[in-house]
Design brief:
The structure is a single chain. By secondary structure, this protein is mainly β. The chain is 4% helix and 50% strand. Strands 1-7-6-5-4-3-2 form a seven-stranded antiparallel beta sheet, with no helix packed on it. Strands 8-9 form a two-stranded antiparallel sheet. Strand 5 and strand 6 form a beta hairpin. The protein starts with a strand and ends with a strand.
């Protein structure tokens, strides 16, 4: 299946996050989220991993920067990630979940957020 780079924020649906992961200190993977106005349901978790980086203040410690998930969804296979530290800027503080890429057997068109035109994921 071809994989297409997306790099857009997603909005988790309230009360669908994995509370067991949150209790252990990780992000709660949402079982449903909204992308480009369409509700997507996570049907299976294929893989999960963490991305680390060095301390930004000079110490030798490594810190988790992102939590990655490869998931099967109602819209195809997706790679999504959670940023531990939100990006700078007021609008970016709450946008911590992102869709990195999508692989779909049938590349169904999704509306683009800005124009409403159809494009293929």
């Amino acid at each position: 299946m071809p994989e297409r780079f997306v790099s857009e924020t997603i909005k988790p649906v309230a009360a669908t996050c994995d509370t067991a992961a949150m209790a252990a200190g990780g992000p709660g993977l949402p079982r449903r989220f909204v992308w480009r106005g369409k509700a997507i349901e996570v049907t299976a978790v294929i893989a999960a991993w963490r991305e680390t980086g060095p301390c930004r203040h000079g110490s030798p410690e490594q810190y988790v920067r992102k939590h990655w998930f490869e998931v099967e969804t109602t819209a195809g296979r997706m790679k999504i990630y959670f940023e531990r530290q939100p990006r700078r800027g007021k609008a970016r503080r709450t946008d911590r979940w992102h869709l990195f890429s999508i692989s779909a057997a049938e590349m169904a068109p999704f509306p683009t957020p800005a124009t409403g035109e159809k494009n293929f994921p």
